[in-house]
Design brief:
By secondary structure, the chain is mainly alpha-helical. Helix content is 55%, strand content 0%. The chain is built from 8 helices and no strands. Helix 6 runs antiparallel to helix 7.
């Protein structure tokens, strides 16, 4: 009995031909095809998925899909600190309303009921013998850890922190002599209290130590806690200086602004030259 042949492409026929491409459509995997008539891009354009076709990320690592988010420019906080510092300095020199309000606030703080021993302890945290060794220990550990881990230019961040610390007396001493502001009533007979050297020492030493320690912490809440602790520590130092009658409040605030500029410059230098260049 003669078997009737089945039409090609029907169910059960394993020899069915693959569907033919429609005119005006593109072949999904046709090499060398371009323009209309192909369902994919020309071979001249880079693929999306392979890692070799992706642009490097902020740290030179492949696999970051562009556009890469950028950090806020450091020029903004640097300019803000500089403008505020110039404003405060001008008010102190011309005996403006900010200076008069500052002296009233200083006298009120000295007469507060906050324990003097606690205030003295906080003020002592800004001494060179306390703050600088803390920075030195963190600086040495960061340099050792970076060299051991093979970090690109591991020496740059510790060196920038040391330079920022050395710049404190180089900036504060001439400013004290130029402004020549008298101290609070308990410091009569002495001049040159603006800006505060103790507050500046604490701000740069503890601030630079925190910036050096940030990359060593893996968890975000640990980094946030470190920065918060650094801020609270400097606030305590400033309050202790004012409560004990060693400085006016704006002496401390001016030191924070001045050291904010130093720490911003340190961060910009480290980010600019401490980042390993990625492949072109």
């Amino acid at each position: 009995m003669r078997e009737t042949p089945r039409p090609q492409g029907t169910v059960g026929d394993t020899r069915a031909e693959p569907p033919q491409p429609r005119l005006g459509r593109a072949f999904a995997h046709a090499p060398g095809a371009s323009g209309s008539g192909t369902p994919h891009r020309s071979d001249g354009r880079p693929p999306h998925t392979p890692r070799g076709a992706r642009r490097p990320g902020p740290l030179g690592r492949l696999g970051t899909t562009p556009p890469v988010p950028r950090r806020p420019p450091l020029f903004l906080p640097l300019s803000l600190c500089a403008c505020l510092f110039a404003l405060l300095t001008w008010q102190i020199v011309v005996d403006g309303p900010l200076r008069r309000a500052d002296e009233r606030a200083g006298r009120a703080t000295v007469g507060s009921s906050f324990p003097e021993r606690a205030a003295e302890f906080f003020a002592d945290l800004g001494n060179l013998g306390v703050a600088v060794p803390v920075l030195g220990a963190v600086l040495a550990y960061a340099a050792w850890h970076g060299r051991r881990a093979g970090v690109f230019r591991w020496w740059l961040a510790p060196l920038a922190a040391a330079v920022a610390m050395a710049a404190v007396p180089a900036l504060v001493v001439p400013l004290k002599a130029a402004v020549d502001r008298p101290g609070p009533p308990g410091m009569a007979g002495h001049d040159g209290f603006y800006p505060s050297g103790h507050a500046a020492t604490a701000a740069v030493a503890y601030g630079a130590a925190a910036l050096l320690a940030l990359p060593l912490l893996r968890r975000a809440y640990g980094r946030g806690g470190l920065l918060l602790g650094c801020v609270l520590l400097n606030v305590a130092v400033g309050f202790g200086l004012v409560r004990r009658g060693y400085h006016w409040p704006l002496d401390v605030v001016a030191s924070w602004l001045l050291c904010g500029m130093l720490l911003t410059a340190m961060t910009a230098l480290t980010e600019r030259y401490g980042r390993e260049p990625g492949p072109e």
